[in-house]
Amino acid sequence: MFLLINLLDTNRDWKNPIKLDLYLHPHFQYYMREIRIVVYSQFLESNKSVTTEAMVKAFGATVNFIDLELSRFIAAGKLHCKIDKVSSVLEMNCLDATTSLYQATIKQGDF
């Protein structure tokens, strides 16, 4: 899992057929973003809190890249965690089925 992001960024051999494909090329960035979301969520599920430095070491990216990407995914609702920029820590918000159902009900409203 930790090597997946490095593999995605450094190994260009498997990317070229996707980029050259007429039908897959327009969706390439979407595929890559969804793969990164799965990798980040798997990494964060195993830890209640993790430092950004640990993520930088695990994924081989810069702190700015990790912060920017995680903040976008959190704002979009793809990752359920909070970023503490002062102490450079990411804290997971564990959502169980009941909490998710409650939040969906509150969001939709009462009809």
From TrEMBL:
One GO cellular component, as annotated: proteasome complex
Domain spans labelled PCI: 26-109
Keywords: Proteasome
Gene3D superfamilies xref list: 1.25.40.570
Keyword Transmembrane helix tagged: no
A GO BP annotation: proteasome-mediated ubiquitin-dependent protein catabolic process
Keyword Cytoplasm in annotation: no
InterPro entries: PCI_dom (IPR000717), Rpn7/CSN1 (IPR019585), WH_DNA-bd_sf (IPR036390)
The protein's name in its UniProt record: Putative proteasome component (PCI) domain-containing protein
UniProt organism field: Rosa chinensis
